[in-house]
Structure formats: structure tokens, C-alpha cells
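sry for the spam today, last one i promise. C-alpha cells for design, 668 residues
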């Protein structure tokens, strides 16, 4: 029978303690076993408790000690959290692994996994080469913080920098649990966190180029630092779609890849379906590299991708039709790059010269784009691209006479002129059905001031011809017979990208620019079926306290011309769960998030983003409440950010802080 330890204290060399929860297999104290570490800041005691129960007990049943650790400054751990992915955070991870390896229930071998932040940390800790760490399994994270994170896309400031940073504004303000840290300590620990808090979106905006802030923690700076085996899991509806191709090509050690159709969820909970038993797949990986059991794992093809079918566009998608395909190496001999030329309105197989084409998109272009990183919340995926199509230059290929399989990263080479000293290009690869419906395949962006360097941007020279390369996000996709490959080129993409100060007009000469498409010749399916998720065993009881709700809407004020996009969730980031009580601990918790983006189609400086949140935690006579507010706007040369946090302990206002930041624009 598994031994569950609610709180294990892990001492750090500086005297701080990190809080952990542990699941030990029966007999581990007499016969040590390998250990599996998940190391993240999202509060093991409450916020991820349900999710943790779907994985860690099964690791223990399979003969592994499972350890879920709260990072310094989060959950019940000591200290403060000044930023994401700090050197201290990574070193703590190294020290945690050393501590685990010395425990009497551990045989000295440790594996590490985690989704999102936990994926980053797995890469970053592995790059420090702690001797006990034998293998990692990052899920939906990146090897390169500049190229593929929530801050900048193609060098363009992302709207996600504001909203996700504002989510962290709330999470960073949450207190430790007095039942764990002690009723005489929790207020002091909470005050220390709140006094140390900064507003992260402004902090990140101080770094608008590829500088040391983004190189820190990016294993792409030196892939040789990661020597141990890696099993990467990702999803096409998630943000991190390019990392698997880069690590498969660049890491020297054994690499396995599994890319499904999923949003930002673990594969055993994956939406769109089909789900995959992630835990079973991971146990096979641990058995091979931690228990040294030869189960034929590495005899399988290393790379497995979901090749999704042409589907109707929908902002809410729960299933994906398609098939699993396999590759042994990347780059693959099965994939060749075919070139299509951008002619006047046509995506052709040969270049044709003609009149110059121009586009100056309305600032609301992008309203059909959904979120760059879907959480599978209703309404957060891209919808019909025809909604925006009139605001872009469109290039259409012929109706297909045979299916076309795309696997990998497309890219666009554009030779163009622009009439402003800065601006950006948004490029959308689209599947157009015979009835005209347009489903997004992939997209990519390019800040024109970064055309020569992400580290040293330079203004564009109005009227001067330039050639830029725009990589599109990786994808596995099959276009059906009768469908058309379509490309849209635009100069705005709101609210996914923050607009440039002035509306820029692009002028593109036909017959010079082109699309490079990774076409997969083989159409065979995978050689084996992936395991379907196991039915959950013991599931902790949760009692609903208040029903949740959500709103996802785009509205136009015809009197003012203002377009307003609203995303309201009573339940928080992962959906409308409302307020619930975790019956095991008696803790009641609930979040409300209200995100609003507004802009007028003719004025990029009218762009405004706001984020209001509220969180409540209570148990017995203990209650805390947190309210946050944030706003972002910009002038031609300055980003303006205002934010505040108010905290209550019972009826007492415990803390209040406000921030105002004015940050010079640097090519954004």
C-alpha cells in the first residue's frame, strides 16, 4: 500500500525549507526505489492537488517514490519568488535532487518531469548535470525562452505577456497554509512575499530584445549541456510546437517525442481527443532509464506525431480526427520542402511578375485567432479565418487533387517595402474548404525591426526593399482532396500581438516571395497503438460551493468604433469550476478572472488591456481574499502599465500595493 506523506520538508543549503508531498511505494523504506520529481510553483496543497492525484499515486504503484515540490516562495515553501526561471530556482532544483538521492527510500536514481513551468525547469536543471538525475520528461515547454514563450512572438510583443503575467500577479500574492507552516508563522511568511512582490509584465517589458534575461534558462544556448535521455510531450493546440523539432535535431542524447492534437493539458487529460495514457507511457520511460529494464522502448520509432485531418473551423474543439505517424530521425528523409510562389492573389508553383501588392490591415485583424496557447476552455481556439480575411493579402493555391500531408515547420520568404520605421508581419497558413470555410493550420510573425538581429533591432527605412524570413509554428496536418492551401499576410494581429505605434503599409512584389512547405511523402500510420488513459482509481472528493460560468465574446460599439474582446471565467485559468471545497483538507477556494482587450480599427494607440481577478481561500475560521487589477496601454514611444494588489486576512486589510510603470518602446 502506498504511503502518502502530506508534507515533507526539504532543507536548502542556505537554511530555507521547501515543502513537498510524497508518495512512497510499499516497502520502499526497506528496499530503496528510484524517485520521480515534479518541481513547480503552483501549490501542491491546493491548486494542483487534483491533478497531482492523477499521476503520482500511479508512479508509486509502479515502484517509484513520487515527490511533488513547491518552489521557493510558492505554496508552503520558504522565501520569495522574484521572477520565473531564476538561477536560484534552478540551483534549488539541483539541491532537491541531491537531497532525494540521499534518502533511505531512494536508490540514488531520479527522474524529473513537469508541464509548462515544470518542463522549463526539467530542461534547466538537466543542463546543470546533477549526477543523480538520469532522465527527464518535459511536457509542453521550450528550449528557447525568446523564440517560444508567452512574451514575444517573432520579436513582437505578445498580449500573453500582459495576461499571463497578471495571472502570476495573483498567484504570487497567495499565502502559505497556516495548517502546514504554523499559525504563528504564516502571516510573517505571507508579508515577506507580498513586500517582495513586483509586477512581472513590466519587469519582462524591460527586455524587448534577445538579451541575457531570455538566454538565461534557454538550453538552446548550448544543447550539449543536456546529456541525459529526454521524452518530450506536446500538443498542436498548445503554444510550444517548435521545441520538439529543435531538440530532436540538436540534443545528442536519446530523444523521444510525442506530439498530439492537445491544448495545454497533460495527454491523459488531453483535449482535443484522442487522449493518451501519459502516465503509462512515462512509466515505460522510467523503467527503461531508471530501472534499466530492457522493454524495447528504444526499438520503437523515436518520434510520433498526430497528423490531423482537415476539419471545420471551431473555437471550441473537443475531438480531432487524424492518425499517428512515426519518424525515426529529424530532419526526416520522408519530408521534403516544396516551394510555392506568392503571385497576385495566387499561391503558385512558378513565379509570376506583376503589379506590386499592398496591405495595411485594420487593427482588429486577428479577432478569429483565439489564444496562442489554448487551455481547451470553450471558445479559446481559432475560429473561421474568413472573419478576418478582408484585412489581409490572400494567396490561394489550386483545389487539391490528392491529400497533402504537412509535417514540420513551414517558412515564408518575403521581399517587401514598408512605409514606416517599424511594423510587423503576421502570416497565417490556412486550409480552405470547398465551401469557403477557412481553418487555421499554422501561423508566424516577424518584427521588421528585428530583420537582421533579435539582439540589436534597427528601424526600417521607409521605401527600402528588404527580404525577411518568417518561420511558422510546427504542425502535423493533412489537407483533404478539394481543399485549397491559402496564405494570409497582414500587418496587425490583435489581441495576440500588441500593435505597432503607426499603421504600416507593406508592399510586396509578386513572383519574388515564397512559401516553403514541409511535405511528408509517406502516409502510413503508426506501427503501434498508444495506450488509452486508465480509469482513475481513488479520486479525492471535491464539493462544489458555487457553480462557475464563462463568457468569451467580441463586441463592437458602433457609436465609437471600439472593438471589445472579453474573456471572463468564474473558476480561473483552467475553466469555469466556480468555487469548490477540497474535502481532504477542508480548504475552499475559487478564482474569478476578467480579461478585456479593446481597440479601434483605425488607431493602434487606442489599444488597451485590463485584467481584474479575485481569489478566495477559507477553512474554518481562516479566510484570505485577494483582489488584483492591471491595465496596459501605450503611446507612440512608451508602454504604460498600472497594477495593484489588495489582500485581506479575514476582515483585516492585510496588504495593499500599487505600481505604475512607463517603459520605452524598443521596436515594439
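last one done:
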Amino acid at each position: 500500500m502506498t504511503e502518502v506523506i502530506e508534507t515533507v520538508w526539504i532543507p536548502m543549503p542556505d537554511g530555507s525549507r521547501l515543502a513537498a508531498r510524497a508518495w512512497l511505494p510499499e516497502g520502499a523504506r526497506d528496499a530503496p526505489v528510484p524517485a520521480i520529481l515534479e518541481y513547480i510553483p503552483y501549490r501542491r496543497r491546493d491548486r494542483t492537488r487534483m491533478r497531482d492525484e492523477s499521476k503520482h499515486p500511479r508512479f508509486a504503484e509502479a515502484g517509484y517514490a513520487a515527490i511533488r515540490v513547491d518552489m521557493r516562495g510558492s505554496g508552503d515553501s520558504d522565501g520569495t519568488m522574484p521572477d520565473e526561471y531564476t538561477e536560484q530556482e534552478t540551483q534549488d532544483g539541483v539541491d532537491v535532487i541531491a537531497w532525494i538521492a540521499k534518502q533511505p527510500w531512494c536508490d540514488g536514481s531520479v527522474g524529473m518531469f513537469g508541464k509548462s513551468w515544470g518542463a522549463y525547469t526539467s530542461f534547466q536543471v538537466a543542463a546543470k548535470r546533477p549526477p543523480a538525475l538520469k532522465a527527464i520528461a518535459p511536457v509542453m515547454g521550450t528550449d528557447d525562452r525568446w523564440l517560444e514563450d508567452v512574451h514575444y512572438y517573432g520579436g513582437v510583443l505578445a498580449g500573453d505577456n500582459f495576461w499571463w503575467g497578471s495571472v502570476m500577479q495573483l498567484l504570487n500574492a497567495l499565502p502559505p497554509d497556516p495548517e502546514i507552516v504554523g499559525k504563528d508563522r504564516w502571516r510573517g511568511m505571507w508579508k515577506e512575499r507580498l513586500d517582495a512582490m513586483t509586477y512581472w509584465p513590466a519587469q519582462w517589458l524591460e527586455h524587448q530584445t534577445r538579451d541575457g534575461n531570455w538566454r538565461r534558462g534557454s538550453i538552446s544556448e548550448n544543447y550539449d549541456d543536456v546529456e541525459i535521455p529526454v521524452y518530450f510531450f506536446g500538443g498542436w493546440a498548445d503554444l510550444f510546437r517548435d521545441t520538439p523539432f529543435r531538440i530532436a535535431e540538436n540534443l545528442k542524447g536519446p530523444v523521444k517525442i510525442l506530439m498530439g492534437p492537445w491544448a495545454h493539458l497533460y495527454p491523459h487529460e488531453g483535449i482535443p481527443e484522442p487522449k493518451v495514457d501519459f502516465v503509462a507511457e512515462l512509466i515505460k520511460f522510467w523503467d527503461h532509464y531508471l530501472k534499466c529494464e530492457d522493454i524495447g522502448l528504444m526499438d520503437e520509432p523515436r518520434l510520433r506525431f498526430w497528423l490531423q485531418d482537415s476539419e471545420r473551423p471551431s473555437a471550441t474543439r473537443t475531438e480531432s480526427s487524424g492518425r499517428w505517424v512515426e519518424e525515426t530521425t529529424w530532419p526526416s528523409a520522408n519530408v521534403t520542402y516544396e516551394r510555392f510562389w506568392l503571385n497576385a492573389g495566387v499561391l503558385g508553383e512558378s513565379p509570376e511578375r506583376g503589379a506590386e501588392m499592398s496591405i495595411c490591415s485594420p487593427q482588429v485583424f486577428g479577432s478569429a485567432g483565439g489564444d496562442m496557447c489554448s487551455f481547451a476552455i470553450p471558445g479559446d481556439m481559432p475560429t473561421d479565418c474568413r472573419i478576418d480575411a478582408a484585412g489581409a493579402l490572400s494567396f490561394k493555391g489550386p483545389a487539391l487533387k490528392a491529400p497533402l500531408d504537412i509535417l514540420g515547420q513551414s517558412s515564408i520568404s518575403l521581399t517587401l517595402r514598408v512605409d514606416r520605421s517599424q511594423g510587423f508581419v503576421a502570416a497565417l497558413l490556412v486550409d480552405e474548404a470547398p465551401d469557403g470555410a477557412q481553418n487555421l493550420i499554422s501561423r508566424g510573425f516577424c518584427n521588421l525591426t528585428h530583420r537582421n538581429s533579435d539582439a540589436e533591432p534597427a528601424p526600417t527605412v521607409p521605401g527600402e526593399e528588404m527580404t525577411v524570413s518568417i518561420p511558422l509554428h510546427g504542425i502535423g496536418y493533412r489537407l483533404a482532396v478539394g481543399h485549397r492551401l491559402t496564405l494570409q499576410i497582414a500587418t496587425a494581429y490583435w489581441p495576440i500581438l500588441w500593435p505597432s505605434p503607426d499603421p504600416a503599409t507593406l508592399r510586396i512584389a509578386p513572383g519574388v516571395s515564397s512559401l516553403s512547405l514541409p511535405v511528408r511523402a509517406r502516409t502510413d500510420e503508426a506501427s503501434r497503438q498508444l495506450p488509452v488513459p486508465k480509469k482513475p482509481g481513488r479520486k479525492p472528493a471535491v464539493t462544489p460551493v458555487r457553480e462557475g460560468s464563462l463568457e468569451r465574446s467580441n463586441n463592437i460599439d458602433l457609436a465609437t468604433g471600439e472593438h471589445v474582446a472579453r474573456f471572463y471565467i468564474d473558476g480561473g485559468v483552467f475553466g469555469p469550476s466556480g468555487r469548490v471545497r477540497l474535502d481532504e483538507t477542508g480548504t475552499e477556494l475559487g478564482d474569478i478572472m476578467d480579461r478585456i482587450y479593446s481597440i479601434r480599427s483605425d488607431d493602434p494607440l487606442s489599444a488597451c488591456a485590463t485584467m481584474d481577478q479575485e481569489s478566495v481561500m477559507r477553512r474554518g475560521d481562516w479566510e484570505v481574499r485577494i483582489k488584483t487589477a492591471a491595465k496596459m496601454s501605450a503611446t507612440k514611444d512608451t508602454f504604460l502599465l498600472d497594477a495593484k494588489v489588495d489582500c485581506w486576512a479575514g476582515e483585516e486589510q492585510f496588504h495593499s500595493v500599487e505600481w505604475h510603470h512607463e517603459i520605452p518602446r524598443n521596436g515594439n
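The mean pLDDT is 96. ok im logging off now
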